[in-house]
Amino acid sequence: MHTYLALGDSYTIGEGVPLYQGYPYQTVQRLRTAGYDFHAPEIVARTGWTTDELAHTLTTLRLLPHYDIVTLLIGVNNQYRGRDSREYATQFDALLQRALLLTGASSRVFVLSIPDWGYSPFGAGRDKGLIAGEIDAFNTVAREASQRQKIRFLDITGHSRADGATPEGFVADGLHPSPATYRFWAQELAAVIGAGLPTRQFPVD
C-alpha cells in the first residue's frame, strides 16, 4: 500500500468542504480507481499557516519514517501577510529538504503552485494586479527551488485565474476552492504521480 503525506495550509486541508472532497483525498481516489493501492492521505495543514508555522509543526509530530509520495502547497499566507519572498525562499527550501528526507527521492515529491486569490469573489475590489504580481514572485521562488532539487512543480495558478475563477469555483466564503476546483487539481496531480508508478490508466472525464 502506498503512503501519501500532504503538507500545506487551507488549500490542502480543504477549508469549507468535507475532508474527502479536498484535493489530497480526491487525488487518492483517482489513483485507486486507476488500480493503485493507497492508504488514505495523511494531511499536515491548517488554515492560515505560513511556511515557518508548517515547519514548526513538523518538528512536533511523529511522522512515518518514509512516505511514497509527499506534496507541498504553501505560501499564500506568507503573501497575504506581506512577508518577504526572500524569507519564503529559505523556509520553502527547508520544507523541500524535509520532504526529500521523507521520500528519499525527488521523483516522489510534488509541489503545487499558489493559487491567485485575487481572482476570487473575496478578492473583488482589491488590487488584482498587485496580488497577481506578488503571487507570481512567490511562485517563481517555489518553482526555482523545486527545479534545483529536480522536483516536479505543478502549476495550478493559471486555472485559478481562468476556469477556476468562477463563482462555482469557490465555497460560500468566496475565497476557498470548491470541490470542483479541487477535482481539477486532483486530476492534474494524480496524472503526474501515476506517471511514476507501474501503470498509467486513468479514468476519462
Explain what the structure shows.
- The two termini are 26 Å apart.
- The chain is globular, with a radius of gyration of 16 Å.
- 44% of the residues lie in helices and 10% in strands.
- It has helices spanning 10-13, 23-33, 51-60, 76-80, 85-103, 128-148, 157-160, 179-194; strands at residues 4-8, 42-45, 69-73, 109-112, 152-154.
- It has 205 residues and is an alpha/beta fold.
- A 5-stranded parallel β-sheet has the order 2-1-3-4-5, sandwiched between helices.
- The protein is built from 8 helices and 5 strands, in the order βααβαβααβαβαα.
- β4, α6 (128-148) and β5 form a beta-alpha-beta unit.
Determine the mean pLDDT: 94
Proportion of strand residues: 5-15%
Strand adjacency order, main sheet: 2-1-3-4-5
Largest sheet: 5 strands, parallel
What's the helical proportion of residues?
Answer: 40-55%
Helix and strand pattern = EHHEHEHHEHEHH
Rg to the nearest angstrom? 16 Å
Principal-axis shape: globular
In DSSP terms (H or I, runs of 4 or more residues), the helix count works out at 8
Low-pLDDT stretches are none
Distance between the termini: 26 Å
| Class by SSE composition | alpha/beta
Number of strands: 5
